[in-house]
Amino acid sequence: MENLLARVTLNPAVSQGKPTLRNMRFTVAQLLELLAAGMTNQEILADYPYQ
Fold it and tell me: Where does the source fall among the domains of life (predicted)?
């Protein structure tokens, strides 16, 4: 679990300081919305391969 949490970054210069994954412009909120909509991990990775 600690390895997963290490991927969440906070940077005021990226996405207006919202928590992002690995300091990229993909927010934790976006990921949670996709999961809540029913997408699987594999579907998300296929749609966002650069993450």
Answer: Bacteria
Q: Which two tokens stand for residue 40?
A: 């699987």
49 is written with which tokens? 């391969």
Model confidence at 5: pLDDT above 90: no
Could you give all domains of the chain from N- to C-terminal order, each with its CATH number? Answer: 2-47 (1.10.10.10)
Indicate the average pLDDT of the chain.
Answer: 91
The pLDDT of residue 51 is 61
Q: Is the pLDDT of residue 45 over 70?
A: yes
- Residue in 8, 18, 2, 13 with CA at minimum distance from that of residue 51: 8
The CA distance from 45 to 51, in Å, is: 7
